[in-house]
């Protein structure tokens, strides 16, 4: 029997939604994670400090008795965002990042940015005060193949932005390619990248070969096997540039199993067990705590969590509920497609 103990982990990219869905999924994260960077792509989006404070109150109100969890709030960057409001938000201590969604890139991103030059005053303010910009790193040009959108974003948007504003602290969210891995590795102190659990496990064959599997469809979409392997090397490298952002994103089954299915994998429930499995496969169990618990706080300039969480490898595989039963409908928990033996201890 093998056992590992980690400082309580954080999720540096999480979708909690709102209302009944928030109440259903929040315990899945709070059970294991102390904090999370909470994505602001609600309808309508969380744009201002006031929006973020109200959303934070709703999250804390939805937290079951006896659980502790600290939501780290983000603002949704729009072309109308006021730099002074962003500065107040950072000063509040409750807002930890601003999120850039290229307009139309993913779920509820219609209000995103079309022209970066229009938000330069906001980005300059963020660079001055050290507030990170979290990027959904995909171009939305219909001419660009969906499997190339991350690499093209790096070349045509991110690299030029960082040359223009090198002091801006940037998190490349949910990188999915070897180009993303390489750019993050060479980006210096002001750049980091999050990696999801599911992108360490699936490649595009899992989605498309032998029938379409909508519960593996997410954005950015999983790429070729060589990219999955590059992500695994990065995540398990011990390089503090990379840390966990699950991008766990609940959609009800009816909208996943649909003629135009929603993007998102729901991994909050089983992420830690899956990561222990992946890190063990890569011979890097000793580096798991960096990825889940240390590199993220270092980049966000926050303390490592005081508590710990332990996992134990047992002969019998873990079991999870196949679905989380939310009032709007069932949400399918990510199924890795293989048995996992790392049990999170209560
Ligand atoms: Zn996301």
Automatic annotation (TrEMBL):
Top-level division of the source organism's lineage: Bacteria
Pathway this chain belongs to: Pyrimidine metabolism; UMP biosynthesis via de novo pathway; (S)-dihydroorotate from bicarbonate: step 3/3
Binding of substrate, residues: 15-17, 41, 136, 219, 251, 263
Chain positions with N6-carboxylysine modification: 99
TM regions (residue ranges): none
HAMAP family named in the record: PyrC_classII (MF_00219)
Function: Catalyzes the reversible cyclization of carbamoyl aspartate to dihydroorotate.
Name of the protein in its database record: Dihydroorotase
Origin species: Rhodobacter calidifons
Gene name tied to this protein: pyrC
């Amino acid at each position: 029997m093998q056992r590992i103990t980690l400082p309580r982990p954080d999720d540096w990219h999480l979708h909690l939604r709102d209302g009944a869905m928030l109440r259903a999924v929040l315990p899945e994260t709070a059970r294991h994670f102390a904090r999370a960077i909470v994505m602001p792509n609600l309808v309508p989006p969380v744009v201002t400090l006031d929006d973020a404070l109200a959303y934070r109150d709703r999250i804390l109100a939805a937290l079951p008795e006896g659980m502790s969890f600290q939501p780290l709030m983000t603002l949704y960057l729009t072309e109308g965002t006021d730099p002074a409001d962003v500065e107040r938000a950072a000063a509040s201590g409750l807002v930890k990042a601003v999120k850039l969604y290229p307009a139309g890139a993913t779920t509820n991103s219609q209000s995103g940015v079309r022209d970066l030059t229009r938000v330069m005053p906001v980005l300059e303010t963020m660079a001055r005060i050290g507030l990170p910009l979290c990027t959904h790193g995909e171009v939305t040009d219909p001419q660009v193949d969906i499997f190339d959108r991350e690499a093209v974003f790096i070349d045509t948007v991110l690299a030029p932005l960082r040359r223009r504003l090198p002091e801006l602290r940037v998190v490349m969210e949910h990188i999915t390619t070897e180009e993303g891995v390489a750019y993050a590795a060479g980006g210096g102190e002001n750049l980091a990248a999050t990696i999801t659990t599911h992108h360490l496990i699936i490649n595009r064959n899992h989605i498309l070969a032998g029938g379409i599997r909508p519960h593996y469809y997410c954005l950015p979409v999983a790429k070729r096997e060589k990219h999955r392997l590059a992500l695994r090397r990065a995540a398990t490298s011990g390089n503090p540039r990379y840390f966990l952002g699950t991008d766990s994103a609940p959609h009800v089954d009816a909208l996943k199993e649909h003629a135009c299915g929603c993007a998102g994998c729901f991994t909050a429930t089983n992420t830690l067990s899956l990561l222990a499995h992946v890190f063990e496969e890569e011979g890097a169990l000793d580096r798991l705590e960096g990825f889940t618990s240390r590199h993220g706080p270092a980049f966000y300039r926050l303390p490592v969590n005081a508590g710990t969480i332990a996992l134990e490898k047992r002969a019998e595989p873990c079991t999870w509920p196949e679905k989380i039963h939310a009032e709007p409908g069932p949400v399918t928990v990510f199924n890795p497609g293989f048995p996992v033996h790392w049990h999170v201890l209560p």
